[in-house]
Structure formats: structure tokens, C-alpha cells
Amino acid sequence: MKSRHRDLVLITGVHGFLGQHVLRTFLDETHCDLIVTSRNEKLQFTDVADEPRLLAYHKLDVTDRASVKDTIGLFKPDVIVNCAAMVNVDLAEHERELAWKTNVKSVEHIIEAARKTDGRVVHVSSDYIFDGSKTPYAENASPSPLNYYGRTKLASENALRSSGVNYCIIRAAFFYGIEVQKKPSFAFNVIKNLINDETFEAFDDLFAPPTLIDDVALGVVRATEYNKNGIYHIAGPEMISRYEFAKRIATTLRLNPELIIPIPFSVTDTRAERPRHSSFITLKAQTELGLRITGIDEGLHVMVRGIHDMEDARQIVYQ
Ligand SMILES: NC(=O)c1ccc[n+]([C@@H]2O[C@H](COP(=O)([O-])OP(=O)(O)OC[C@H]3O[C@@H](n4cnc5c(N)ncnc54)[C@H](OP(=O)(O)O)[C@@H]3O)[C@@H](O)[C@H]2O)c1
After folding, report:
1. For the whole model, what pTM was predicted?
2. CATH number at residue 163
3. Whose CA is nearest to atom 8 of ligand 1?
């Protein structure tokens, strides 16, 4: 009997918010074999370490051209799923060289290596390539980033589009969900403050679609599995302010919504400019990737169940 060929997928940035979900979704939803990489010495997730389809963990800094070439050359993955990035929008505005290296040069290194091994690249981009003036955006809308982070994400897309390698770009927006890691997201910060009876300030004039990270991970995995090329938009169905989202989190978790204080983004002068309104048309991802986009209330309940499981496993510390 012929042995069945299983795709070999290499994931970068596996310890990140999305990377960790992409890893688990590949394990749960596919038969792919996996190589996972990040800047850490070791894989931090002990619960999946013995998974037989997780063939190797490899330390990889994506800004290091030689390491990217050697790692991809060594494993020759069918697909490279790039979840590594510098996502701190305000830091990227000031640390431009680092942001360019991390978000653009790294993609060029991946492209160069993938070309040699005939690998496909599945890459993640952002709603911040748009300025928010013509929301909701379809995949073919014209980009016009307002900040440097958005410029780097757009440049990473352009590198892929002109590369000649097979690529798929998943553009996503404003993640929330469970994370087993050190850099808490917006939703986690809301929960942490409210649990500790502290106030939480949230912008009431910055509107975005909170997006359950599980949906983005599933989109990335399906785009890989279904061999999709081109661009897909994945975002939550409702565009609401950060303030409104924080209130919805409080209500769902039965925490005190009075602790949430609305503040205008317009008064901040230390922050990078952002689109005031952002949302996506997600029809393509729904029809071609079979995604069912999760609404905020359902998504928050998914998150709450995950928090309880993780509290049981003592993986969450709120202070
Ligand atoms: N978060 C959002 O709301 C959002 C919205 C739209 C799109 N996106 C996109 O989604 C993707 C994933 O974002 P995320 O939220 O998962 O970010 P994240 O949690 O910060 O994860 C990014 C990961 O990349 C790693 N990384 C940074 N520089 C690296 C390097 N030189 N070599 C190897 N790894 C490196 C980071 O490692 P360290 O832990 O060592 O720093 C981190 O684990 C990004 O492309 C981002 O642009 C995010």
C-alpha cells in the first residue's frame, strides 16, 4: 500500500497570540505534519509537545536571512505559515527599522527560501493597511495605511504579490480570545483590571470589529489545507468602539461595567494614527473557506469557557 502523503507545514511565531491558535487548529482539524518555530529556546506549550504530528520545534528569528534559508532548506515544508510579526502599532511608529526588518524583510527572506524549496506561503496581514474612510473593505479595495505598522504590512503583502511564489494572504482585524502567553490582549487587560476592581480606560471613538482568534486560525488553516491563493478578509461581524467592547466583556463575565471609563482617541498625542472605523466584507472567506464568523456574544462565551479551562489548569494569572 502506498503511504499517504501528508503536507508538512512550518509555522513561524508559534508563541504569539495567533501562532498558538494556528498550531492547535492544525492539530485538531487537519492531518498535516508540523514544524513549529519561534525566537524562544524551547516550545512553551507542554501539552502538545508529545503530539506525534508535531515533528520538531526549531528556534528561528525570521529577521535572520541565513537562519530562515537554513531552516526552510532543512525541513523543506510544503507550506510556510507566517504568524511572526511586530504588532505593537505605537512601537512600530518609533522603531521603524525594527518594524521593517520584522514585518517586511522577514517576508522577503521567507519568499527567497520558499522559492528554492518550491514551498507555498500563507501570510497574515491587517486591516491597518486601510485608512478606514471607506469601510467595510472588500479584498480588492485600495490600501492607504495611516501608520508605519500598516505600511509595513502592506509592503509585506506587495513582496508576496510580486514574488512569483504561491501565496495566500489572510487579512484580519482586532483579535480577542484565549491566550497562554505573556502579552495580554485588550480583552485580557479588561478582565484583569475589572477582576482586581481597577478602572479601565477605553477609546469610545475608535471602531473596529472584535474578531474571535479561533476564526482567524481556522481561516489560516483552511486556506493552507484547501491550497488557496490570493487574499481573504476575516473579521468579526460587528464594528463597535473599544469602550463598547469592554462593556460587553464586563457584562458577559458579570464584572462591573461601571469601572470602564470612555476616553477619546483624539486626545492622545503619543499614539500612532489609526483608522477610526474599520470593518471587512468577509463573504469570500465564508464561501471559499467555509468559515462561520462568530458574533461577539458567542465569541465571548467561547472565551469564558476557555478561561475556566485554563484557570483549572492554572495557566492564567490575573495580577
Ligand atoms: N493582534 C491583532 O489584533 C491583529 C489584528 C490584525 C492582524 N494581526 C496580524 O496577525 C499576525 C499575528 O499577530 P499576533 O496578534 O499573534 O501577534 P503576537 O502575539 O505579537 O505574535 C507575534 C509573534 O511574532 C514573534 N516575533 C516577533 N519578531 C520575531 C522575529 N524576529 N522572529 C521570530 N518571531 C518573531 C513574537 O515573538 P516574541 O513573543 O518573542 O516577541 C510573537 O510571538 C501579525 O501578522 C499581525 O500583523 C494581528
Report:
1. 0.96
2. 3.40.50.720
3. 126
